[in-house]
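Q: Please design a sequence for this.
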């Protein structure tokens, strides 16, 4: 694996992009344990000091990766809205399926986003990206909520459902190769659980 670059040939923005690309490649191929400043520098073809200089250390790189992760998640959750049926139920389901698509296609990022305490979650760019993700979900839940408090409760319920399904879809660490929900689909689970979570609006009855 390699990223074709030449040392000292990057503009500032391109250098940052090369380091991030290297970091993504490292975690995609070897998991979070494979990531280090030296490995990022070597793979990106920059000096050993460059990652620390531009990101302040490994935490800075992880923060940038998590930000990218949420940006990709946002794109994935909204991607299916154009083709979804024009009702609130279908549009919320489309958001959930987009969430699952992201988790499947970006396993290392998904794990980093929701299990690591190293990234700086107070970073403005990260807060904006993660806040947008929550708002995309809120927008899908809003037609089913009677008031702001109900909306918040519904968001947590739907997020728990989608995230739990996504995590289980990755297999069980204690039982390698075991996929407890491979025989079902999120749409099946969603249709069975939704009536118990919230009363559907008239347009979906």
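A: Design:
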């Amino acid at each position: 694996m390699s990223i074709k670059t030449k040392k000292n040939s990057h503009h500032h923005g391109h250098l940052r992009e090369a380091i991030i690309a290297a970091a993504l490649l490292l975690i995609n191929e070897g998991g979070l344990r494979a990531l280090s400043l030296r490995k990022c520098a070597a793979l990106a073809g920059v000096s050993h000091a460059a990652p620390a200089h531009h990101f302040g250390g490994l935490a800075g790189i992880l923060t940038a990766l998590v930000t990218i992760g949420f940006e990709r998640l946002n794109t994935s959750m909204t991607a299916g809205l154009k083709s979804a049926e024009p009702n609130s139920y279908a549009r919320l389901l489309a958001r959930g399926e987009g969430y699952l698509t992201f988790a499947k296609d970006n396993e290392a990022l998904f794990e980093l986003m929701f299990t690591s305490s190293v990234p700086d979650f107070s970073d403005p760019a990260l807060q904006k990206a993660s806040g947008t993700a929550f708002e995309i979900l809120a927008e899908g839940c809003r037609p089913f909520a009677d008031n702001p408090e109900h909306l918040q409760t519904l968001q947590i319920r739907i997020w728990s459902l989608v995230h739990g399904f996504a995590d289980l879809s990755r297999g069980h660490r204690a039982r390698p190769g075991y996929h407890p929900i491979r025989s079902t689909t999120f749409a099946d689970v969603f249709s069975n659980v939704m009536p118990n979570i919230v009363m559907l609006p008239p347009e979906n009855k």
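Q: Thanks. Anything notable?
A: The chain has a mean pLDDT of 86. The chain has two domains: 1-56, 66-204.
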